Amino acid sequence: MIEITGVSKAYGRQHVLKDVYWRVQAGEFWGLIGPNGSGKTTLLNLISGVEQPDAGSIMLQGAPLSSYTRKSLSRKMAVLQQDGLPRVAYPVREVVEMGRFPYQDWRGREKHEDNVRLVEGIMEKLELTELADRPLSVLSGGQRQRAALGKVMAQQPELVLLDEPTTYLDLRYQIQFMELIADWQKQDGLTVVSVLHDLNLAALFCDRLLVISEGGIVAQGPPDEILTEKMIEEVFGVKSHLVVHPDTKTPQLLLQRAIEK
Ligand code: ADP
C-alpha cells in the first residue's frame, strides 16, 4: 500500500526525518510511536501529500504519490487529526455528507439514494443519529470526534491516517474509537496508520508498531516484539514494567515513579 524509500525531510537546518525506509501492506494497522518532536506527524504529512520529501520516494499502491490528483488521492486516503473538526455551526449530518465530496461529478451530483443510505448507516453505527441536526459547535469533544470519524468513513478510503485521534477522548470513547477503527479494518480490509501516545492502546489495537526517535526508525514489528522495557527507557527516557495482558496476551505498560530508581 505504502512504500517509503530513503525519505528525508528538513525544515531549514533541522533534519526532521533521516533516510526512512518503511513498507505498509494493505490491511495492516500500524501504530507510530515515539517522543514529542521525533518526526511522527511529519511522516504522516509526507504520506498524505501535505509535505514533500527533500529526498527519497513515496509510492502509494505502486505509483508515485505525486502522480495522484488531489481528488483521486482523497478517494484513497483520509486523514483525521487529534481534534478532528472545528466548533463550527454545521450540523452533524452535513459534516458526514461532506465526506462524499471526492465522489461528486463535475455537476456536484452523486446518486442520491445510495448516498443517503451510506450516510445513514454510518451515523447509526457511530451513534450519531440523535445528534444529526445539532451543530458541531454545541457538541462535546468526543461527539465531535465521532462526527469527524463519520466524515472519514463516508469518504470510503482504503487508507486512513490518524494523528493522535484519542487525545481528547475519555476512557470509554478512547476504546470505542479504537474498536470502530479496528472493526472497519477487519470488515473492509482498511489500512490504518495512527500516531499514538498511549502505548497500551497501541499494544491492544495495532498489528505493528513503528518506533521513531530523532527522525529515524529505531524499531518496527509486532507490539510483543517491539515493546520492551529497554526500548521504552532508551527512546522515551522512562523506566517501566511490562506485564502481559491477561486476555489479549499483549504487553501492557506500568509506569515507575522516578523516586523508585
Ligand atoms: P512529532 O509528531 O513526533 O511530535 P513532528 O513531526 O510534529 O514530531 O515534528 C518534528 C520536528 O519538526 C519538531 O522539532 C518540529 O518543531 C519540527 N517541525 C514540524 N513541522 C514543521 C514546520 N512546518 N516548520 C518547521 N519545523 C517544523
Record keyword descriptors for this entry.
transport; Rossmann fold; 261 residues; nucleotide-binding; 9 helices; binds adenosine-5'-diphosphate; ATP binding; four-stranded antiparallel beta sheet; 34% helix; alpha/beta; globular; six-stranded mixed beta sheet
Q: What does this 3D model show about the protein?
A:
It is built from nine helices and twelve strands. With 261 residues, the chain is of the alpha/beta class. It has one domain (2-258): 3-Layer(aba) Sandwich (Rossmann fold). Strand 4 and strand 5 form a beta hairpin. The longest helix is centred in the C-terminal third of the chain and has 18 residues, at 171-188. The chain is globular and about 55 Å long. The mean pLDDT is 92. The protein binds adenosine-5'-diphosphate.
Give the terminus-to-terminus CA distance. Answer: 44 Å
Cα gyration radius (Å): 19 Å
Counted by DSSP, the helix tally is 9
Superfamily (CATH H level) name: P-loop containing nucleotide triphosphate hydrolases
**CATH level-two architecture:** 3-Layer(aba) Sandwich
Number of domain modules: 1
